Give the backbone structure.
Amino acid sequence: MVDIYERLSGFCPAPPPYREIISVLTAVTEETQKTDGECVVSAPWVTVVKYENNILMDFMSAASAMQSWNFFESIMLLQRGGEMLALWEEIVQAREARKLSFASSLLRGVSGSAEPHLYLWFQRLKASLISKFSLFFYQTLTQQTTPTEMKSLCARLSLDQAARLSAFQKRADAQSISVLFDATGLASYNGRPGYHHLEKEQPQMSGLDLFPVVFSTPTQPSHHFPNLVMILTDQNTDLATDKTVHFYDGGVGSTYFLHLIEPRFYVVIIFDGRRSERDSTINTFIQETALQLRCSKTFAALKPGYK
């Protein structure tokens, strides 16, 4: 497990290859299953490790499902991971687990803090993923409640990304800030995320339909879609290198800033008139947004001495 955490901390600022991590965790699960019933003394410690592995597996799988814009899988995995985390905390704090000096020191660290360091990190990871989930599926979630309640629920998150993007849009006087999804070549994509009847035939997507808006404030820049898709296609190589692409279109009198958050997801800021590609305020905000949605700081927190 230590090797897995080291790998996760090493991918910052790039998003981790979740599927590779899941494969390793699957192998760990198979190994721990082989130890069932072998030793009564180590049984409680093995139980703790199984909970730890399963929690990380669910959270990594949820992050992977979000990359495919899969609403149902993402929410179910986040829910199960959260429930498992609560059960794991009970195991760690139980008297039997406390007696295991090795497991206890591994979980609590040398400082002997009241809460296990790893447990606190899992809570931080869960909070980061829920914050990300609230933005990636904002439109789906708003259909299930009122706008007022949605804002209230998001305000309780560790980081309200929807409010954060809206605040910057007003502060920077941007025409709009959007997050786009690129469903090109994604066989599982059958339209906007949410619940779909299995027997209902889904329409074939093509053209602009393969680049749906995930989130947009204050409105969707529909008349800019052809331009945006053209830029995403033409500048694909630069975007893949974690570079912010700047483009001014004199024909419509607008400036575009585009950045790849993680595979298939892009943050797009549109301004009326010409804006400098070196504008530090805009570039810093875009880079911070990408790092936050990649959960980069959360994974970097696994490094020894991180503050």
Notes: The two ends are 22 Å apart (CA to CA). The beta strands are 176-181, 213-217, 245-249, 254-262, 265-272.
